[in-house]
Amino acid sequence: MHAPVLVLKDSLKRESGSKVRYAIIQAAKAVADVVRTTLGPRSMLKMLLDAQGGIVVTNDGNAILRELDLAHPAAKSMIELSRTQDEEVGDGTTSVIILAGEMLHVADAFIDKIHPTVICRAYNKALEDAIAVLDKIAMPIDAQDRGIMLGLVKSCIGTKFTGQFGDLIADLAIDATTTVGVEIGQGLRDVDIKNYIKVEKVPGGQLEDSRVLKGVMINKDVVAPGKMRRRIVNPRIILLDSPLEYKKGENQTNAELLKEEDWSLLLKMEEEYIEELCMQILKFKPDLVITEKGLSDLATHYLSKHGVSAIRRLRKTDNNRIAKACGAVIVNRPDELQESDVGTGAGLFEVKKIGDEYFAYIVDCKEPKACTVLLRGASKDLLNEVERNLQDAMSVARNIIKNPKLVPGGGATELTVSAALKQKSSSIEGIEKWPYEAAALAFEAIPRTLAQNCGVNVIRTMTALQGKHANGENAWIGIDGNAGSITDMKERKIWDAYNVKAQAFKTAIEAACMLLRIDDIVSGIKKKQAPGAAPSKPKVETEADADSEQILPD
C-alpha cells in the first residue's frame, strides 16, 4: 500500500519548457530597453525615486538598475550583470546590459528548433573569437603619458553628465589614481580606489573649485578649539586605535568603599592611569594625536598643556588613509609606541571652516599613498552625479594603469568583431553555424543604439558602417556620438579601455548562456490570503488520488 502523498498546491508554482525561455528573453529585453537610451554622449537622463524618497538623476546604467524593483527572476539576474561590471572595471555598465539583452533576443528565432546547449556552445566559440579580435586590434600605450590618459578618460566620461565640464573630472581622476598607485613588481601597478581615495562632497562654491588634495581631509575639529592649535607646519602625528580615558567595566562593577578617603583614592587611581597614558605619548613629542576611540577631559587637559592638538572618534577608514598619507603606523596600545610609528610625512595640519562645518586638512604630504578628492557644487543631487561619474573615471584610469591597452570606441570595436565573426561563420559546419551568425549580428546592437540616440538615420548609418568594416578593414572607423557622423576614432580620440570591453563581452555572453539553459522556474512563494480568511490546510491524498493525478501540473 502506498504512503499518503503531501501536495502543497497553493505554495508551489511551476513553469517549464519553451514558455519559460520566451518569458526570460522578454524580461531581459525589457531591462535592456530601460537603459538603451542612456548609451552615448547624446543620451537621455533618468529621474528615479529611491527607497528613501530621494531623487536620483543619472544616466549611469548601474545607478539606474539598482533602484529598480523587478519581480521576474531573469530581470533580477540581468541587473546583477551591471553590478558585476561596475565592481570589476567600473565602466560599460549600460553596454553589458544592451549586449546581453541582444544576445538573448537573437536566440529567440531558433530557441524551439535548436537545443539551448548547442546555442551556448556556439556563443562560447563566438566569445573566444571576439576576444582574439580584441587582442588583434588593441593598441598598447604608455600609462605615464598624461595626454593619452587624459584623452582616454575624457572619451569614457564624455557619455556622462559631467562630460560638459571638459577636462575637470578627467584631471581629478588621473591625479587621484596616480597618487595612490603602488608598485607590485614586474613593472605592474595596483590602485586601491575603494580604501585610499575618499571623495568628500561639500555643497557650495563652483564645480571648478574641486581639487585633489595631496593628503587627507576629514570632517572633524580639534577636541578643545580654544586651547589647541588649529594650524601646525610639519606636524609629528601619532595615530591610535585605543581610548585615552579610564576603562569602564564590561557589565557591572562593584567597588566597596569603607572610608571617605577611599573615594578620593579611587579617583586618584583613574587620574594617574590617564596621566601615565598621556606621558607615554608625550615623550615622543607629537604635535597631533588622533584616536579612533574616546578622549577624556583629563587627557585633553594634559595634551593641551603640552601644546598637542587632538582629534577623537575618527573612522577606521579615515585613520588608515591618514596613516598612508603621512607615513604613520596605527598603534593599539600607547605603551607600545616607537619612534618609527610617528608620522612625519605631512607638510601642514590645518582646520578650516567651510559653510557651517569644520574640516581638518592633513596636506602637502611628501609621498602620499592616499588622497581626498574635494568636490564642490551647487546642490547635493549635482554632487552625487559628479561623484558617480568621478568613480567611473577613476576606474578607467586604474584599468589603464593595470593593463595599458586601448581599443576603438564609438561602436568601432563591436563592428570589427561582428565583421570578423561573420567571415568566420562560413567555415563553421553543422547546426552551430546559425547561433554563431546570430551572435555576430548581436554585437551590432551597440553602434545601432548609438546611432538611434544621436537622432541620425539608423539604417543608412549602419549600412555605411557595415560597408567600411566588410573585409575586416578600417577597424578604427566608428560613429561619433555627438554629431552622428562616421569618422576615424583615432583622429577624434574616442577610445575605450581594453579591460572594459573584454569584461563586457565575457559578462554579457556568459550571462546569456546561463539564462538560455534555464528550462524551469519553480516558485515557492505563498499567495497572500485575504484578511480574516481561514488558513488553508495541506491536502493529504490517498493512494487512489496519488495514482490518478499529476503532483506538479504544468
TrEMBL record:
Residues 528-554 are annotated as: Disordered. Keywords: ATP-binding, Chaperone, Cytoplasm, Nucleotide-binding. Its main location: cytoplasm. GO terms for molecular function: ATP binding; ATP hydrolysis activity; ATP-dependent protein folding chaperone; unfolded protein binding. Signal peptide: none annotated. Gene3D superfamilies: GroEL (3.50.7.10), GroEL-like equatorial domain (1.10.560.10), TCP-1-like chaperonin intermediate domain (3.30.260.10). It comes from the Eukaryota. The keyword Cytoplasm applies. Pfam families: Cpn60_TCP1. Molecular chaperone; assists the folding of proteins upon ATP hydrolysis. Known to play a role, in vitro, in the folding of actin and tubulin. Belongs to the TCP-1 chaperonin family. This is T-complex protein 1 subunit gamma. It comes from Glycine soja.
